[in-house]
């Protein structure tokens, strides 16, 4: 079965968050289920440079005008990942990131940049690349969400479409004035199309037009059909009924494997945990932390309100007072970044802070820290806790979304059964987080129990195996309709 996956970022080519990890890993997991996935993404400078460095064989396919501009598809295979790269330099050849300029401001024409990705994706899905005819188009998040809209508006035969919501908070809503430039029929400007409270809603339109909506955990699928979790789209999503499916994300367990990870100081495994201490000592040195036997807690995240990191920043003094050292890696809202930097200034040998994205460092943090703190106010799935489980860095998480689906709370029954893999708390508030931190300290003080929890965590199946099987079944069920 041929699948065209369309995403705005794909690891290892370009990454700002978990979407890239999913778009990069799921295609490989699907090969075991008879699915051949080709991933389409924009030709950002970093992507074009990667193709140039790799000296891969590239086939060029010219497209008819895409939203009034010249475009071409570069077809190649890079590190076994089949790619269609949308080459439109006027839209993608820019300094900065995939969505923002060097100062962190959204590009004013993001609507055009990602409408073009979706339009080109629909063209490819309907034969614009000779010899490629997918049975399934899998679009990811609002940036690719117009793909099902363009396909549904076509009078030509089309493949079945799946749209995955990675985070409902980001919907791609733009002023109505852009609609004429989207090259959609007039009928698409309707409540059943892209019109959304007088604006153009990319995600909203895709949710109407696609054959199936998926999201990245079963609990999040339940949350987003409620008034509190649907962010204005709960009615539409509730109306999709059984066409809304929650499939939990996995991780690439070949990249994230403490037995073979070349980024960490010492390899270890669930059955050989002792070398993990070397990683803790290395982490202390890297962050300038005081060397001692007490626990190290970690944050590796976007530093945002959604992730609840304002709560952690506000508790830094209390955390230190409990004998905990803290390392923070991430970037995000200035006020939260500043709060962590100020905490580091107050406690330079107890709190280490790195502002920025650093993939190799995140491996070293997971290998050396004892617990990873993820107090999200909402979390569609989350991958950080999965990395933590894989590395024996036990998650402290709120009872929301994919966090609730993937971590087993250390309650009495779970501890007694040897199944506990972390600490879950609710609600996402200061007092509840502090209580969870205290509970974690009690667990950590029992060395034997903590080791059993680490072992259980590291043996948890966080791979794509089960979820890829569910996606493959979903694809096949669609094609058989």
TrEMBL record:
Domain of life from the UniProt record: Bacteria
Record-level Gene Ontology MF annotations: alpha-1,4-glucan glucosyltransferase (ADP-glucose donor) activity; alpha-1,4-glucan glucosyltransferase (UDP-glucose donor) activity
Enzyme class: transferase
Database matches in InterPro entries: Glyco_trans_1, GS/SS, Starch_synth_cat_dom
Pathway(s) served: Glycan biosynthesis; glycogen biosynthesis
Stored Gene3D superfamilies: Glycogen Phosphorylase B (3.40.50.2000)
Keywords: Glycogen biosynthesis, Glycosyltransferase, Transferase
UniProt keyword annotation of Ion transport present: no
GO cellular component, one term: cytosol
Function: Synthesizes alpha-1,4-glucan chains using ADP-glucose.
Protein name (Swiss-Prot/TrEMBL): Glycogen synthase
Organism annotation: Jiella flava
